[in-house]
Amino acid sequence: MFGSNFLHLFTLILCCNLFIISNSGMLYKSLLTLFTIFIALCTPITLHSQYAESLTFQHIQDGMSQSSATVFLEDSFGFIWIGTRNGLNRYDGKDFEIYTKSLDGKTGLNHEYIVALYEDGQNIIIGTNEGISLYDRSLNIITPYPLINEGETIKNEVFETIAKRNGILWLGSESSGLYSYEIETGKVKHFSPPNENIKVENPRLNKVVKVDVLDDNRILAVFTYNTLLLNYEMDIISEVLQTEEMVTSINSSENSFLVGSGKGSLFKLAIEKNSISITKEKDVSPGFGIRSLEKTLDNELWIGTENNGLYIYDENLDFIRHIEYSVTKPNSISGNSIWALLCTRDGTMWIAPYKSGLNIYDKQYFKFKHINSDPFNPKSLSNKLVNCFSEDENGNLWIGTDGGGIDYWDRSSDTFENYSLTNKTFASNVVLSILQTKDDELWAGTWTNGIAILNTKTKKTSVLTSENSFLKSNIIIDLLKDKKERIWIVNYFSGVQVYDPKTKTHQNIILNSEVDGSIINSIYQIFEDNQGNIWVGTLNTGLFKLTKNNGEWSAVHYHTKNSLSNNFINAIIQDDEDTIWVGTQGGLNKYNPETNSFLVIAKADGLKNDAIKGIIDDQNTHLWLSTEEGIIRYNTNTGETINYDVGDGLQSKEFIASSTITTKKGEYIFGGINGFNVFTASDVEKRKDTLTLFVSGLKLFNQPVLPNDDFGILKKDISQVDSLTFNYDQSVINIDFKALTFRHPESVNYAFYLEGFEKDWNYVGNNPTATYTNLNPGEYILRMKSTNSDGVWVDNEIDLYITVTPPYWQTWWFKTLMIALVLILFYIAQHIKLLNIRKNQRRLELKVDERTKELQFQKNKLIEAADNLASKNEEIQRFTYAVSHDLKSPLGNIRGLASLIPLEVPLEDHPGLAEYLSLIDVSCNNMNELISDITEIARLGKIDNKNELLKTNELLDLSRNLIKGKLKQLNIELTITENMPDIFGDRNRIIQVFGNFLDNAIKYMGDQESPKIIVTYEDNGDTNSFMVIDNGSGMHEGALKKLFTPFERFHDNVKGTGLGLYMVKQIAISHGGTIIAESEGEGKGATFKLILPKAKIAAQNARKSLIS
């Protein structure tokens, strides 16, 4: 670059000298013409530098298989394929996937040196130093692709250019001419160009620079020294010879190609129907061959050369710009031998400098234009520390630096002119503030040198100092011209002064602290609002508002004790709605004039950093805030914030206080510690571009899953499937996905959720991996989405259908099989059971027949016995009544006759007669009682009870009256529980039972001193137990067992037949109850219980019995 420019300059100087020497004639005219030509030649030199300033390249040095890229391809999915001298790389903006040479001859490249890439549908054909290989996208593998012609493999051919149409591959060889290969039949044809008319000795005469299939099935073949138009049979339609060796070619437009030569010239090929023409378009890089060509979306031609950098050619303007590697510019291209170029569908340019990785030029990558100092360029910014700005009437900027004096930035030429102490054109190198006081006068506040006044027309300077003027200090922090043309001067630690240029007078402003009354001199910022108030910011004591009343300035002090967030003031502005905003070291402050206080916005409200260094209002509800952590866009209505950092093109993360300006064109400029940034609001609007998502990886138990591996899950590459099926025991699943972008991929945020398992999205930042463990068998949908690189959520959701199969015992077929098996087993069991039943039935039928006969016989006998028994029972009953009648009558006679004896025979004459008569009476009574009992027993089995609802206490009172005399005679205490439950039964028979119990208790009372009988009851649920308890003689266990046996008596001294208890038990049984007797032994009393169903239950049973 330097040599070329120097040559132009030297020639120009020589021409000028000759011009001066010559003053007439043909020499004058010739020199004038020559002078004009060289002026034209020199003009692009300046233009080159202008354009170079606006191109910033990203560099990728690491990650590829090798640093020398040889060829590019953007495939239909958006991946960038990069061929190198040692392998093939697929780049997704974040990671490189590397494909290397085959080790087994089955999968992998047939050679690691890549020279050509051609996309063919789902596949990519790869030209290498040993033929071609084929990339299969469905499996994400590369396999060697041998070309076999009549049984022989074409070996060691280097195919640098590839085309395909109608099932035929067209392959341009590096040294052997052109091949056509019919994919279906394997038929190969070969073509070598006719070189007899070429007078150049070159071993690469048969090299094919470019092969292309034209729309009408003609073939264009560009060789090194001739270009031919062929038909499919490789017959020559037209030929044109070149004067220079051709190296590279691209399609420019329909039927037009551009070709670069080894001498640095650019040619244009025009194709008519049956002819070709070639013309030289431009000598781009004389002496330096053209290695690569590519057109941009703006129709500019980028030209990569050998050792001479990059040229950008605008054909319409006939304008060439030259870009070279610069050691002083870290964002320049990284090398001057450009082997490959690519323009992607979004307009991004990819550059492959030899052994220098990749360079990328993306107009939208950096949102902020960065202007910095270049120590090797005297026309650049003089110092990287930028303190202040001022704009002149032409839109050019005066820039105050910290160490380089003042720079004048001519926007039209994009050059900087420096005024500094170093070059003796200015009074100081450290400029803290700049003020345009007049159209041709600039005031600059300096560090230690007072105010330097520069006449912008004459470039002469004068200086105001504390020694020669009213200034209180030689360190001038800030300058302000108010609406009345007064100049406010901020002296470092010496307060504020006001100078009136009209009257040449000044005034010192005294500020007193509201806190302690001290004088405040540590002034840092000054600002005038639309109402004419002067706002003064300090280094450590807050903010003052100055208002002039009656010719005097009054001040209001704002500080941390009355609403200000921090006392260190960096910036003060007033927005388009007249709101005052104050930037401090501790947040942004919004002034409320109604309350005369400030609202604080800080980190808690979304600010990335609290140190607000500069503020610009875009008059569209946004404030732009420079901080110590980048730039923030703050929405004054919603409070929304957007943060920008070095990745967006900022000069650094740290900016300098109040180093801001809004230009007449609406540009915003912020100065910092590494130059300054220039931008407009539209430059940094959030991008709306939608990124393509793809599934990039699958792991099971943290092991990668590949097509046709032992896991058996994938038949294709994971990026090519839309559904996955897992076994129930494949319980740890990791699914990786990515957004395909080359623009800040680290700023892309991701989210996913598994429908059927989760109800909401998982927002995972820049870590797009979905991990799930122990999913239940079932159907799921993994939904994935992302933002673009500006954090905007876009409509790019992709879905992956996931099936987790159940264990075999939970599958429908297994359940069906089990059901069928159970049914079969049930059927077999039932069949066997049926057979056994039938067998047993036959056996039982035989037995039943036998038993039936036997039972019939027994039945007949029982019927006969029953008849006999019934007859005998009737006879017994007749006998019983007869006996009772026949016996009672004689007994009555006997008793009657015995009663007459005392009347007829004096008893005193017969001393033993009275005793005999008494015995006769007792025996008659016993016999009478026995007969009555026998009669009653007979009646019990014959007479039905006349049941009714009975009041138990009434029955007991009646029974007590019947035995009242005995109780009194024997002094027995009888206690009857009141309100005992009712009984449903036969009145006379229940009285008989209670009477028997009481009579027995009296009979067997014995010789108790305090004889007692208690009548009570117990509730047993469905029954009641009516109890007669005495403390009489009791009985032993043996007696209890025989107590209800007829004719059994247990005390000889107690009269009775032994039938009473038997009779009352039969009465109880006839009522659905029973009788229980209990005694702990002789002499310990006894308890007799009448247990009967409760009245309600007994009544229900009686109704049921009656119904049935």
TrEMBL record:
Residue span(s) of domain Histidine kinase: 882-1096
Xref: Gene3D superfamilies: 1.10.287.130, Histidine kinase-like ATPase, C-terminal domain, Immunoglobulins, YVTN repeat-like/Quinoprotein amine dehydrogenase
Enzyme class: transferase
Signal sequence residues: none
Catalytic activity: ATP + protein L-histidine = ADP + protein N-phospho-L-histidine
EC number: 2.7.13.3
UniProt keyword terms in alphabetical order: Kinase, Membrane, Phosphoprotein, Transferase, Transmembrane, Transmembrane helix
Organism (species): Maribacter spongiicola
InterPro entries (UniProt xref): HATPase_C_sf (IPR036890), HATPase_dom (IPR003594), His_kinase_dom (IPR005467), HisK_dim/P_dom (IPR003661), HisK_dim/P_sf (IPR036097), Ig-like_fold (IPR013783), Reg_prop (IPR011110), Sig_transdc_His_kin-like_C (IPR004358)
Superkingdom to which the source organism belongs: Bacteria
SUPFAM superfamilies attached to this UniProt entry: ATPase domain of HSP90 chaperone/DNA topoisomerase II/histidine kinase, Calcium-dependent phosphotriesterase, Homodimeric domain of signal transducing histidine kinase, WD40 repeat-like
GO molecular function: phosphorelay sensor kinase activity
Segments crossing the lipid bilayer: 6-24, 31-51
Name the record gives this protein: histidine kinase
Source organism phylogeny: Bacteria, Pseudomonadati, Bacteroidota, Flavobacteriia, Flavobacteriales
PROSITE patterns, alphabetized: HIS_KIN
